[in-house]
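Hydroxyacylglutathione hydrolase
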Amino acid sequence: MNKPLAVVPIPALSDNYIWLLSDGRTAACVDPGEAAPVLDFLNAHGLALAQIWITHHHGDHTGGVAELKRRFPKCAVYGGGDVPAADMAAGEGGIIRFAGRTARVWHIPGHTAGHLAYLLEDGGRTHVFCGDTLFSAGCGRVFTGTMEQLAASCRRLAALPDDTLLYPAHEYTAANLAFAECVEPGNPDIRAARQQAAHPPTLPVTLVHEKRINPFLRTAHPAVACRAAEAAGRPLPDETAVFAALREWKNRF
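Predicted structure tokens:
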């Protein structure tokens, strides 16, 4: 059996993480918003960059691609049709092979219409690079997608095995937990997570942990639905409406 890949968060810009995967010789990185920290890491560890995986087209996820490609011309850049820098098309049902492992591609629209996730199977569990769709204790804003799409994408991620590891692209955990505690002030798991969030990085996180603390994955819980309806000032007929009300509330929070 292969030794599990090393997966390292490289801080970038103000609060981004560029996730770097390595087998000790070659590397892949996810959403390089800038090139310099990636190049520094590669040089320090003697690694060659073989692949770049892009979840969506926003500049804080793609800003470093051109320079990395210049330094590593043979590097394959995977992304959807909304990513001009991509030279390898990626989309729902696609398969990427890296270092003897397989990553599946999911289309998880909402934050953007073309947003992708990369699901890597390694070490007996699933590792999900979910960009700006799902954060620890939160979810992304809606830009070019729809609220219904974002809710459906989060439900799809939530259906993965509980031991799945999630790798969001931003360190938003502390701020998200403040909102989560406002939604569920009596939730002891949120209270404990807030103490731990004082010492980043807080990522990756397990899906089962998120199911305990993330209001956007707890829309079926009566206490969460009730608080969302209070904040919205209207009855909420289903879980998608609860999700949308929570996202609108978070936008104002």
